[in-house]
Amino acid sequence: MVDTTVVQVMVPDLVRVAGGNLDHALWAVNGFVLTYAALLITAGRLGGLRGPKVLLLAGLVVFALASLACGLSSSSAQLIAARLAQGVGGALIVPQSLTIIATVFPKERRGMALGVISATMALAAIIGPVGGGLVVNTWGWRWAFLVNVPICVVALVLTLLWVPDAPSGPRQALDWPGVALATAGLVAITYSLIGRSEFGSVFAVAGVLLLVLFVWWERRYKAPLMPTALFRRRSFSLAGWLACTQFLVLSGLMLVVSLHVRGPLGGSAIDTALVFLPMAVTAGLVSPLAGAITDRAGGRLVIIAGLLAMGVGVAGFAVLAAESASLALLALPLGVVGCGVGLVMAPASVEAVSELPPSLVPAASGVLNTGRQVAGLLGVAITGALLQTGTPGGAPTGTPAGVALGLLAGIALVAAVSGLLLRTRPAQPEVLPVTSVTS
Hints:
Layout: H1 2-5, H2 11-17, H3 22-50, H4 52-72, H5 76-104, H6 107-139, H7 142-146, H8 148-162, H9 176-194, H10 200-218, H11 234-262, H12 269-297, H13 300-322, H14 327-353, H15 361-387, H16 399-418
Helix pairs in contact: 2-3, 3-4, 3-5, 3-9, 3-15, 4-5, 4-8, 5-15, 6-12, 6-14, 9-10, 9-15, 11-12, 11-13, 11-14, 11-15, 11-16, 12-14, 13-14, 13-16, 15-16
């Protein structure tokens, strides 16, 4: 998660590596996102077929080697290739977390476990720009990548020692036509959202058509990459929609905030990170609590409260920004947004898998993470398009930015209402802490 944000503070350095070519520098930023988003579904399914621990270990090895290659790159072509490989490693790692937790922890303790993971994800949004800025200023941009290597080595050792071997699914061939269609479709859609190409709309249409063909194939293949039975479970479809909505709103808001701080307020990248700090801290503090409540009483009301908080926070930021409020005041509604993020992230994951048999959890994890990633890119694309219709810089004091923030707040509120369709689960009996998770 840190590596999706850390590159934002090193764009000038990457431009120099690329010989002044901004497009090459941006592909060093976005290459990670491209392969990461495109391979999440496949990686989730592979975790079910080969075992999530095996995929987690493989992902850590790939990520470490790719990070080393990033830090040692001497040209933009080498750096872009290494960032693409980093995205592959990230895609192998992320879906396995939900699968391992769903396997190791009983249902009544999953919420707390996922809440802890959600807290680390929230903090990563701040650690990336702030920590990356400090590392780049102190040791140079290469060390922002090289620091991943010892971290991955430690993670490999801890995984081997402490993560139990979750059972793999029945031995069967991977759905290679499904892999090809899903990957091509997601690559096309992701490229249309992050690329700076005049053919973006063509890629978007092609991506949608490929994904429609993918769904058609999956309904007919006996061992599909993405079992369509997932979407016949109301809890998975609804919770997935709510989780994706959260990422769409959050990504769009972060773009507006960044432009406002760096533009009208004349702040630095560090100022931007500090404005986001209350949002990350509140999300990190609330996430475990939200997970614990979900364990006890279900996530329906928790998710609704979180989406309402996000909508109110976005609207509050719009009002204060229009009044040219200070950085300290702007941080207050962002703290409210952070509470909403913490209330939604872990409970949505818990509800998404609550009614699924263990055999469907790996595929569900890949689909859920893919949906969140694409929704985040869509939020940036929609917000950016609205901002470009107004004044340069897209200051939130202008009408287009106000429209964008109003749209984001409205989407959060509509999602909160749709959360009423989630089933209310009965409260779980209190359980004693588990002292060991070994199988």
